[in-house]
Amino acid sequence: MTSPRVLVVDNGSLSIPQVRKSFEVLGADTDLVKAAEVPDRLDPRYQALVLSGTKVRAYDSDYYRRLVDLVFTSTVPVWGICGGMQIIGTAAGAELVPGRSRVGNHEVHVDKQEPVFADAKPTVSLFQRHMLYLKEAPLGFKAIGWSEDAPVEFIRSEDGRIYGSQAHLEFRNDGLSVLQGFVRLFQ
Question: Which residues form the Glutamine amidotransferase domain (predicted)?
């Protein structure tokens, strides 16, 4: 049986090796492309698209225009990690606001009714490294995870194809349990 293939978009994150390793541990092969070099259309060999975190401001719509177009026109499952979620959220109309700076493990509550959280505990300990947050889920999306510091820790599009996490899921076992639920969407 052939392993599913994921295209990982490098938005300038320092944790690209960990993102790729997480998906490979879960049985998916990965390829890498820089955000400025994403294709206009997703090659049919890919079963999913993953957006890494970013050092560039997520609301830079000119810089991310091709990536945003790819996310919203493709038909495969998409996951945005940290800045990747912020890119998706702001492109869909969400407001990005400053909040408490968080670095390290923080507890996040997840909606256990969501199939993507089937392997996760109701409260997960996830690695956070940021100070900007989505104020609320954008139109066409639902907040499916929250914390004391952020009302939107996870999002899901209404059609169940596009997801995002404020946390860096690639650094902790609890994060890996969430990514396992995402991988099941395209295995």
Answer: 7-172
